[in-house]
């Protein structure tokens, strides 16, 4: 991430496949840790949240919305997109 006088922009896509296997709290912890590493190295993170999917059920959708909300709040507090 060493640039020529510019801050690198790192885009991250949050994985919806892990919601059922790993759980929202652990996924959020992993992303918070990774975002902190990007910030500490001088990068600017951009996070793309979990996109809705048809046929995954209400529990999956609820977890995805909750995780996206937590990520959005965390990014907002840090001035990220």
Describe the structure concisely.
The chain has 81 residues and is of the alpha+beta class. It has helices at 24-40, 57-78; strands at residues 9-13, 44-48. The two termini are 19 Å apart.
Annotate the secondary structure layout.
Elements: E1 9-13, H1 24-40, E2 44-48, H2 57-78
Parallel strand pairs: 1-2
Helix pairs in contact: 1-2
Task: Describe the model.
The structure is a single chain. The protein has 81 residues and is α+β, with helices and mostly antiparallel strands. Helix content is 48%, strand content 12%. The chain contains two helices and two strands; from the N terminus they run E-H-E-H. A two-stranded parallel sheet has the order 1-2. Helix 1 (24-40) packs parallel to helix 2 (57-78). It is elongated. It starts with 8 loop residues before the first strand and ends with a helix. The model has no long low-confidence stretch (mean pLDDT 84).
Fill in the keyword field for this structure.
81 residues, two-stranded parallel ribbon, elongated, 2 helices, alpha+beta, single chain
């Amino acid at each position: 991430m060493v640039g020529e006088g510019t801050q690198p922009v790192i885009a991250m896509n949050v994985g919806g496949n892990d919601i059922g296997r790993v759980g929202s709290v652990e996924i959020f912890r992993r992303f918070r840790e990774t975002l902190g590493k990007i910030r500490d190295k001088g990068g600017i993170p951009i996070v793309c949240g979990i996109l809705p999917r048809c046929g995954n059920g209400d529990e999956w959708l609820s977890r995805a919305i909750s995780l996206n909300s937590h990520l959005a709040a965390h990014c907002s507090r840090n001035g990220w997109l």
